[in-house]
Write a structure and sequence with these properties.
This protein is an alpha/beta fold. It is 39% helix and 13% strand. The chain has a single domain, classed as Glycosidases (TIM Barrel, Alpha-Beta Barrel), CATH 3.20.20.80. Helix 7 runs parallel beside helix 9, helix 8 packs antiparallel against helix 9 and helix 9 packs across helix 12. It comes from Clostridium vincentii.
């Protein structure tokens, strides 16, 4: 849209960056922390790049004061981080671990000391392993009460210090990767019925947490972070336009409609009923979901868009993820009889074959504004790349600056178009363990001296993008 006059970001706009406990903390068995599903999963041969683990990660557990001081030097307004459930409840429930609670007290207090708004993600994929062993984790409704108990513990402990809360990070990703393509715990493949049932359990857990939050944290804001990949129909052929509608219902609105409206999209639910995959409801589920809607904001983790084309009934299914960084090896994936996602010839890609489409972040905001009339928190947006440190300890990541600049420019356009955007959190503040991609895929403004092997110095070095983002924050996005 064209506007003669353009508005900038509000004065209280939250310029931020993000991390996740398993990816940065390390200290896997220190101070009473229990084992997580990821502590076990990474030890299965072939599941991660060069068998990397988060046992040490980038040692944020011992270096959080140093890291937060660097955030303050950058001028960060908010820091989004996750709490490790097994650090709070080593067995997932029962006896709480006071040392775990105190660690996050210290992180929060350190942020507040510098005027940085803490933004807490309650679940960023590290499930207590005991719950996986006892009742198969998210596959059982037992998880609902245990997650609610964990959430209430956090609300009571940190509710007076923390305003912004995220219940679940990328529910669509951890469930798809865990039960469809076997890339995440518990490593199951094409278990579609369980995939939808697991998501339903997560939705009920989210709902119970939201209802508890409203009682315990008055004035606080809560939402979920969704990995949103907006779609384009490959052309104007009606069959491809309908394939896009199917994709949107099953890959986007299946989750966001629950967060915002408290129900599933009707056409998608009818389709899943016919396939025998629809989730089983218990008494009270429908009412609970509706009572918990709507969230205070929609969290968006945005990295790429997708192209949608009709996929015949004998067409392609799910494909493997590129975890190597060898460009061009990804394959087309899809759902037979519905849609497939071919490459977009108009866009460049990262070394991991993710499309680079700055306008997509604007599309996220426009869709959420029009469909849900909700404020938006960009809870993740960033570029994973092979960053190299020079002999004089410099990291020239101009490609990251170009990437982020283009995305922020599109966010400005979204603001002009009426979208209420509360925060922009880059992924990530420091380099970290990129799940199954290891440490070679770097996202941070701060370079961490480590490779796949353990034993490196873990020293921190500011990349060129660090100083660039510092200026962006200083000028509230006016100078990019």
């Amino acid at each position: 849209m064209y506007f003669k006059e353009k508005h900038g970001f509000k004065e209280d706009f939250l310029w931020g960056s993000a991390s996740a406990a398993y990816q940065v903390e390390g200290a896997a068995e220190e101070d009473g922390k229990g084992r997580s599903n990821w502590d076990e999963f990474v030890r299965i041969p072939g599941k991660t790049f060069k068998a990397t683990t988060g046992d040490v990660a980038v040692d944020h557990y011992h270096r959080f004061k140093e890291d937060i001081a660097l955030m303050a030097e950058m001028g960060l307004k908010t820091y989004r981080f996750s709490v490790s459930w097994p650090r709070i409840y080593p067995k997932g429930k029962g006896q709480v671990n006071e040392k775990g609670l105190q660690f996050y007290d210290d992180v929060i207090d350190e942020c507040l000391k510098y005027g940085i708004e803490p933004m807490v993600t309650m679940y960023h994929w590290d499930l207590p392993q005991t719950l996986q062993e006892e009742y198969c984790g998210w596959e059982s409704r037992n998880i609902i009460d245990d997650y609610e108990n964990y959430a209430i513990t956090l609300f009571k402990r940190y509710g007076k210090k923390v305003k912004y809360w995220i219940t679940l990070n990328e529910q669509n990703v951890f469930t798809n990767n865990g039960w469809v393509i076997a890339a995440h715990p518990p490593g199951k493949k094409n278990d579609m019925k369980m995939f939808y049932q697991v998501n339903h359990h997560a939705n009920i857990a989210h709902a119970k947490a939201v209802l508890a939050f409203r009682k315990l944290v008055p004035g606080g804001k809560i939402g979920a972070s969704f990995a949103f990949n907006p779609s384009y129909a490959i052309d104007c052929n009606p069959i491809n336009a309908m394939a896009k509608a199917d994709y949107d219902d099953l890959q986007s609105f299946w989750w966001m409609d629950v967060y915002a409206y408290g129900h599933y999209p009707k056409a998608a639910f009818k389709y899943l009923e016919a396939q025998g995959f629809a989730p089983k409801f218990e008494d009270g589920d429908e009412e609970l979901m509706k009572e918990a809607a709507q969230v205070d904001f929609m969290g968006v983790n945005y990295y790429q868009t997708v192209v949608v084309e009709y996929n015949p009934i004998d067409g392609v299914g799910a494909s493997e993820i590129n975890t190597t960084g060898k460009k061009g090896i990804s394959q087309i994936s899809g759902k037979p009889g519905l849609y497939k996602n071919p490459a977009n010839p108009h866009l460049k890609t990262t070394d991991w074959d993710w499309t680079i489409d700055p306008m997509g972040i604007r599309m996220c905001c426009r869709t959420i504004t029009s469909r849900y009339d909700l404020p938006v928190v960009i809870s993740e947006n960033g570029l994973g790349a092979f960053d190299k440190k020079t002999e004089d300890n410099k990291i020239h990541d101009d490609y990251r600056i170009v990437y982020l600049k283009a995305h922020i420019e599109e966010l400005k356009e979204a603001v002009n178009e009426g979208c209420e955007i509360i925060a922009y959190c880059t992924w990530s503040i420091t380099d970290l363990l990129s799940w199954q991609n290891g440490y070679q895929k770097r996202y941070g403004f701060i370079y961490v001296d480590r490779q796949e092997e353990e034993g490196a110095s873990m020293d921190r070095y500011k990349k060129d993008s660090f100083y660039w983002y510092q200026d962006v924050i200083k000028t509230n996005g006016e100078e990019l």
